[in-house]
Batch of 4 targets.
Target 1
Amino acid sequence: MERREKVNACKELAKRSGQWTSFDPERHAEVMLDDMENGLRIFLDALPEEVRDDYEDRYIEKYKEWLSAQSRCFSQAITGAGGWKPATFRRHEKTLQAERNAYNRLLEWCQKVIKRCNRQERLTGWAEVERLEAILEQLTEAQEKMKAANKIVRSKRLAEVEKLDELVALGYTEEIATKLLSARGWWGAGFAPFELSNNNARIKDTEAKIHRHRALAERGVGGDEVHEHPWGKVVVAFSEERYRFIFDGKPEQDIIATLKSNGFKWSPKNSAWQRQITSNAKYAVHRVIEILNAKYNEA
């Protein structure tokens, strides 16, 4: 089955996802299916070609879970607020939270799969900063392009044919431009607010990653930090973005269990227990050091 056929097979669920939140569930379904296909394309493009078929159906299933969560949401604009009891408001908040959780699970799953499948190609230091800056440039360009498209679509001084020409000149195909000019949901024509906000969230996330990787790369210029302890040493390898515990010999089983429970994995290449440098990892390092120091002092 072709990708678009798989996406279209979700149309009824997509329609139900907007039954209590959209004045036009049919249009809502079209928007969600377009978003599914676009998100799926971006996700698969980030994976090695040989594994894409394995994850196509799984992405669609995760997206359907989000649509199912949406189908349980309702809006006062659609249902009316008259007669809403406190219990109804509480249910309303719960369904909205469940919908947000489902969407976050989809994003987190995508990020984990991309990271896992590209583990062999993982970059660090300035190379990773350069890669992320290229992604940021694409996301920023897409954001500005969507905003410009919405400005054209909602212009009152342009005729429909002029709007179509402007959108094509902006870089959209005639097919996409025609879709943008038709009412797609409660917001009318153009890109939906959630499409802009989702892309903006990706921009902020990428900017945060660039800031973190650049800081590590700059600190790595001066070399790694090495902290000596009676039981071994802790190395902060900035260039490879790793915290490392190095022991003179094989640590005891309870220490190995402590390292594993705090997210450290054995690296035969570096003869060390290591974990990627993150804010959470920093606290894990301190916890393990406290346990090791306490054990050494007892001995």
Target 2
Amino acid sequence: MAILLGSFGLASCALLEPDAPPPAEEVAQQEPPPAPIEPPPPRPAKKPAPPVTVARLTPGTTDQPPPPVDPDHIKGLDEAAATAWLGEPAAKTEAPPATIWRFASRDCEVDVYFYLDLQNRVMRALHYEVRGNDSAERRPERCFQQLVDEHRQRDGSTTAYSPR
């Protein structure tokens, strides 16, 4: 009887066990092999430079267009250099210890304040103020660009602007 119970117990255990996994050969055929993992592309050593834009020039010219105007270029210029760059002022006012020159373009005005450089005994621009009717016209870059362009057109000037 013990033998009978033992064989019955073994038979019932066999019924409770899940199916055995298929042989390894069948598993290999059912699942595709995993794709090889590629390493990420190498990172550049430094950030690449922005693309260079090529300015359009009049055919036959090799000169580069003038760089954008920096309003702070006026600071430190003496009166002769300021005149060469912006042209003759529309008005000059004495307000000791300063001399104020007003330059006017079609859309805005710039007041440049000259003070005496005691070492060189030369009047130098130390400050400027921009005024215009529109907020966009009051932007110093735009106003100075208009002054420089109008001076070049009016006088046929080739005085180059060179940022510091």
Target 3
Amino acid sequence: MYRRYWDEFPRYERTSPKEVKGGIKASSGRGDFAKNWWAKRWIQVLESFNIGARLSRGKTYARKGQVVSIEIEKGEVTAKVQGSRPKPYKVSISMKTLSPSDWSKLAGAISQQALYSSNLLAGSMPEDIEEVFKQAGLSLFPLKAKDLKTECSCPDWSNPCKHIAAVFYLLGEEFDRDPFLIFKLRGINRDELLKMILENAAEIGSTPVEGETNINIKPVLPPEPLPTDYKQFWLGSEIHNVILGEVSIPQIIAALPKRLGNLPFWRGEKSLTEGLSESYHNASLEGWKIYLVK
């Protein structure tokens, strides 16, 4: 008996997903899932793969907060997405990482452009950085659907399914906040990349160029380590009897929390550091007033 190809696959009636409390809900509302060019580029690449209606249903899942959790590691994203069944589905997205020699080559090229380094240090992605990858015979973003290996524990035979698509879109929003996560998917984290760039920049500055004066780039001092004892971080250490120097409100409010960075996939009305900055500023004012009274 003749059977159509599609009849060989089981069919599942569309059902409504179970409501999630505290899920990662998209903050974009009905607008775009990305603001900055690098996050938009990620979304554009995914939509160019002609995945179809699954991306649209993935948007709905992302906006309803059906994604329970997302973890981003080098070359891999793991997530849990709540569907219609009691137990959330397990999602994994793998992306081919670049080799250490590839990253060394890229760091050398980036370090030769001061604008690239300054943008990255400021948490922004240089607009033409894709050209640097292209010249090295590499790519920052996936070029075709096969560059991304995706899996989901749901019964849907489609791959990627709507659960994977929901994670795709939330990743786009998170890339807006932290562009270094794109590099992490390619195999290198923020600190490792910046260290390589600074080391290459120091070598360039210490190498004489014919006809030019040798300019040495001063090594960047390591940041002050954060206290390992959480009590010391929040309560501070013992104050000496004699305080030297002028007492004033810090120029940089909430410096230590800012060094820690925002929590990933934070969905509050304000960013965590922004909310803490207000508290730190108010506390500084009160402390300053108390000191003046004494």
Target 4
Amino acid sequence: MQDSFAAKLIAWQKRHGRHDLPWQGSRNPYAIWVSEIMLQQTQVATVIPYYNRFMQRFPDISVLASAAEEEVLTCWAGLGYYARGRNLHKAAQIIRNLHCGRFPSSFDDVAALPGIGPSTAAAICAFAFGQRHAILDGNVKRVLARAFGVSGYPGEKKVETALWQLSRSLLPEQNLETYTQALMDLGATICTRKPRCAGCPVRAGCAALQQNRISELPGPRPRKALPEKHSQFLVIRHGPDLLLEKRPAPGIWGGLWSLPETDPQSDPAQACLHVSGQLPGRIRALPALTHSFTHFKLHIQPLEVTLSRKPVRASESGGQVWMPLADALHAAVPKAVEKILRRLVPD
């Protein structure tokens, strides 16, 4: 199975793999890097429109490095996992300052950039420079665990180490880029959570298929109840404007504009006074919503707080800004905040 695995994948990819993605057909390391970062924990169909807009706005490392972080996050808004956008921006500045604006070709230099782990670095080096490195993203872990019958949860150190060793042992001497793309394509289109085994090029030797263990492999994440948190968001308004605060980085939604957040047990009038310098004229509860993160659930109670007097203009340098509702909907705001704001738009 190991001897023929790469050959079968390479032949399959040439006939049935993906060949028309916007970042394919080029050795431009910048374009490949941006695509690989966006594809972390995000499906291709979701990434494509974001990638096209991002590349149009930031066509090269110099433009990205010179941009303001807020502009980068505005372009990223809605894609999620915002640390990826912040790290992309930081890495562009490192490349400008330490590598004379040229994307590094050394695997170690690539892996040292913010937001790039060994698998992402391997993919970039394979596609951009033709280098021979193994990849092991989530899709590849699933493919290898099923094909070779590797038991256990891939997030456990012992299992992950075994999968890395297996991935390295399978690397072909030639057609490395095609093989790397084949692994990605197989995991994304065939060997999914609900696999289409009939179209798999390695089904004849697949341990999971032969042993009727497809639903068991890879092993699931050990079940653990997600912590639940509660918070109160203040939608502080005066006329068409509302008050936004920039979230600190690092952290959840770091660098994005958000609504002022308070403890759910706090007095909203006093919270409004603390945030805006004024007591509210009216407070109205908006429909609650729940936003799920990877490691916890956040239950949000939004309160619309109307000020009767014109507030003193906030300072962006101080982390606050008054912004028209229509502009806020297109600013760098988290998805949960966007949902709250959309409920304020008249039908």
